[in-house]
Amino acid sequence: MLESFQKFALFLRPVKPLAFAGLFLFAVMFVWNTTLAADGSGERWVIPSIVGFLWALSVYSFIGSFQHVPVKADSRASLPAKLKAVLRRAPYWVLACLALISSAAVLILSYRLFSVWFHDFGIP
Questions:
Q1: Statement: the pTM of the whole predicted model exceeds 0.90
Q2: Hey, which of 58, 72, 76, 104 has its CA 20 to 30 A from 25?
Q3: Domain total for the chain?
Q4: Is the pLDDT of residue 91 over 60?
Q5: How many CA atoms lie within 13 A of 104 on its CB side?
Q6: Residue-range definition of the domain harbouring residue 115
Q7: Over the range 36-60, which residues count as b (16 or more CB within 10 Å of their CB) and which as e?
Q8: Where are the alpha helices (DSSP H) in the chain?
Q9: Alpha-carbon Rg for the chain in angstroms
């Protein structure tokens, strides 16, 4: 699983600057719509800015976390070398589980927020 995450992160590496720009733009959009648009005209775009920020953050952190996964130990390696490789890869397994859980959470949250947004504002 870690190797597939690494391949996917390397495939998405060209998108990393775009994800960072998305983080910045969606944060600015949220701040603008909540504080600076005093007449309430920006209220419509608060939920899409939150969802966009969460997805951009997920993509950016995924790419940054899984670009450099340590290699597996060779099957002919000694026991201490295998143990060392397993211990180097253990934090990446924790990150992989957290990435799966957070992606599922962002997906569910996106569905819920967009259903509220469509109910309140209709389809734009």
A1: no
A2: 104
A3: 1
A4: yes
A5: 5
A6: 2-121
A7: eeeeeebeebbbbbbbbbbbbbbbb
A8: 2-12, 16-31, 46-66, 79-121
A9: 20
